[in-house]
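Aim 2 progress update. The chain analyzed this quarter is reproduced below.
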Amino acid sequence: MSPIDAINNAKTLVATEPHKAKVMLLEVLNEHPEYHDGWALLADTHKRLQEHEQQHSALKQYEMIYWFNKQLDTAKQQLTNQTPLQAQQTIQQLLKLVPNEYRALDTLAEIAFKVGDSKAYFAISKHNLENNAQKQTVKESYCKALLNTKQFDELISFYHSSISSPTLYIESLLAIAHVKLMQFDEATALYNKLLDANYYPAQCHLRLGNIEKIKGNTGLAIDHYKQALQLDSKLGEAYWNLANLKTYVFDSENINNLEQLTQTAKPHLNSAQFYFALAKAYEQQGNFSLSFAMLEKANNIQKSLTPYKPSNFTSRCTQHLTQKPMAHNALDESLQLIFIVSLPRSGSTLVEQILASHPDVDASYELTEINAIARELESKKLSDVPYGLDNLSEQDKAHYAARYLNFIAPLRGGNKIFIDKQPTNFHHIALIKTLFPNAKILEVTRDKAATAWSLYKHSFSEGHAYSYDFTSLAQYINDYTDLMSHWDTLYAGEIYTVDYQNLVNDFSNTVAELLRHCNLEMHENCINFYNHQRPIMTPSSEQVRQPIYKDALTQWSNYKVHLEPLLKLLK
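Predicted structure tokens:
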């Protein structure tokens, strides 16, 4: 029985069986003293029993805990209002009064997470667990911290070693960890278990649909998305997931439902996904003007929810990284890392699929470990030079190189070559080449208009806040162009470019040259890449499971008149 249920049960007994009510309240408040309503009820119970001294003591507890809880609520509201420093100060005052109070520590961890300090976030969550392990919510928060800091194996290990009676919420986190590790059978079993428990069934069908899409089972994915909509007809993510399937065509009923939903749409992500999906439906009908109007509404909502904050990172790189930083001097000849970078939606998944089809190559999903290392180094503010590369010792370089290799170890097979395809790693080429000087860098390029259009029409699950506005989208693409030009100068001859148009128009020769650059023999699997059955966790999973096609080269031109303001901003 939950503490709230126990307090409510005691409340029904106070008038008729006050002694029994008192026993129940003392028991629950001994274990959960944070419930101020329970102390108020206990004071009333003592009053009925004419236990005046105990009544006075309970009232004092009520007053103190009520004030504490109000301060805690204030801190949470301050965090919601985007004033994390005020929230932190409020929480730290509470922790001076009640050291290691589990809710205050949980809120402090959340503050650290919101401001992007993942190291402090995890450290606080771990400290909370060490001091309040008996609290189920603390275990839940620790599991969430493991997930949010991408410690997926550690989450699974903690689940099996330290959680004897897991909540459904913890099992939902475990399912996500299994997906991230591409352990889809385990994840599917957990989601089916959650479905049997009727735990957010629409969301479970969404996740099961995503798993089937990753595995290439489009028909099963559609079935799950439709089941999600049967359970929740206003679930924007389900409509967007259907829209994001290249083979699904919206029927008149779908379109009518979406049109009705947009009539009452409010400015939140769910509504934006209605508009993104409706834009795809109108595009399928050939009504490009109406499709673009829906995209404008969708992107305006997304922009209001996730405003873009420009970075000065490109200028810092061009200003301070004018010579190659001293590279890590311990080379591992048993491993050849290949990093694929690009603007998102530029064909990098296709290049990855071609290479991953080779029997001598291992590949995984879009990894974020290089970015995590970059963020940690940047947070240390070692110097004006990005990542403090001028201050990194050989020991530091060895540490971060080993950290990355340990991260990819469970993702590797038995091959020498391992691909890390993460478009946004274009920011971190100097870091990559410092840690792994023998790494190969592949840049995938595509016509800027096609790339910009593909970004603007897409609803991303996270990140990419620049893509929801023409000005910020052009700025991001121009910054990319400037930074890659800088890297090409700094690492002359070390960045190999694969042009998407060449890949489509001259496939065999382009693939042959790519394989030669990667020191790989030509293999028929690379030509028939679409037959290679591997999980693909990007929006392009369907496209790379079919032979090369040219439609994507000119699709943007259907919207050329609407895109003129954007095209004028591109370099």
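The chain has a mean pLDDT of 92. The first strand starts at residue 336 and ends at 342. These observations will guide the mutagenesis experiments scheduled for the next reporting period.
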